[in-house]
Design brief:
This protein is α+β, with helices and mostly antiparallel strands. It has one domain. It is 52% helix and 16% strand. It contains 3 helices and 4 strands; from the N terminus they run E-E-H-H-E-E-H. The chain has a 4-stranded antiparallel beta sheet with strand order 1-2-3-4, covered by helices on one side. Helix 1 (31-49) packs antiparallel against helix 2. The chain is elongated, with a radius of gyration of 25 Å.
């Protein structure tokens, strides 16, 4: 079985990690990390809704039970129901985007990004069309870097 990530040490002592990137636009952030970050942001926003005063004033004698029930309902909605629905919708969106990404790569022959990252932060990238071809290129790059040969990059570095 071919490993998903090749880790090689060049003659100069630099450690290189060579892998195929599924989502190169996320940078160092993973899909799970992005989902977790967005989920926490949603929780913070819905937590701010609990601080909103609805502007309703009831007499203390007539509505203590109603006020307690309304507060419990709001707390349940704000801290459980709304975040759960938002998380499910976000998860559905992530799944649909993943399916669309796979379809785009397969059907429209969108290139995969093979990336080699050194321990000192140096990054090299190659765009290769096809799953098998990108796996072969990943292995070739790992062998060349292990031998001390840095292959030329075919993807320009990002601006900014």
């Amino acid at each position: 079985m071919i490993p998903a990530v090749h880790e090689v040490v060049g003659p100069d002592g630099r450690t290189w990690v060579v892998r195929r990137r599924w989502v190169p636009r996320l940078g160092a952030e993973t899909v799970w990390g992005r989902f977790h970050r967005r989920f926490r942001q949603t929780l913070r926003r819905t937590g701010d809704l609990a601080d909103v005063d609805p502007g309703c004033s009831l007499d203390l004698g007539e509505g203590i039970v109603v006020v307690v029930l309304v507060i419990l309902f709001l707390l349940l909605a704000v801290f459980v129901a709304i975040p759960l629905l938002v998380a499910l919708l976000d998860l559905l969106l992530v799944v649909l985007l993943a399916i669309a990404g796979v379809v785009a790569r397969v059907a429209f022959r969108r290139p995969w990004t093979v990336e080699a990252t050194a321990g000192d932060g140096t990054r090299l990238r190659w765009r290769v069309v096809g799953w098998r071809a990108s796996g072969v290129r990943r292995g070739e790059v790992a062998q060349l870097l292990g031998a001390g040969i840095v292959p030329p990059e075919d993807v320009p570095p990002p601006l900014g």
